[in-house]
Input
Amino acid sequence: MRKFILAAAAFGALAFAYVGVNPIISLAQSVAIYTDQGGAGFHIGSGGTQTVENGGTLNIANGGKLKIAGVDVTAGAGGSNVAGVAAGYKIARGETALGGSNPTAVTTGLATITGCSLTMKATAAPGVGTSVVTYCSSSGTMNMYGWKVTATGDATLIASTGTETIGWVCVGT
Output
């Protein structure tokens, strides 16, 4: 209990000193909050919440770890890493105009691509122009293919010669 009172008092003093009467950290009442001796770890007990307000930042220093219920989620929380089925995945994204012939190669910056999603950037129905985009990949290069209907009344797809802008998101390593 003494650690809780000391930690709460320290946080209150820091919050007041930093922004005057505006709190930067709100803590739920009756929550076990403490730091390890030497400051190596900060803990919020069961049922606790911590909210950074007024544009504040909760920063985990280089080499620090973020754990949720004892599970290390550091890799999924930083920069371009995505936590999910497996750690270490990255996300690449962008917009690229089709080159007028198939395929249009896009360098994603990924070493390997495990999946992509492509969407045509448009505000109107495609008509006889490019109506479908597909892709295949080789290493970190995504090859986009544009397809259009043959003609009005003939829905057979043929290679598009369009230069529509395609928004894309790829996941890989």
Notes: The mean pLDDT is 76.
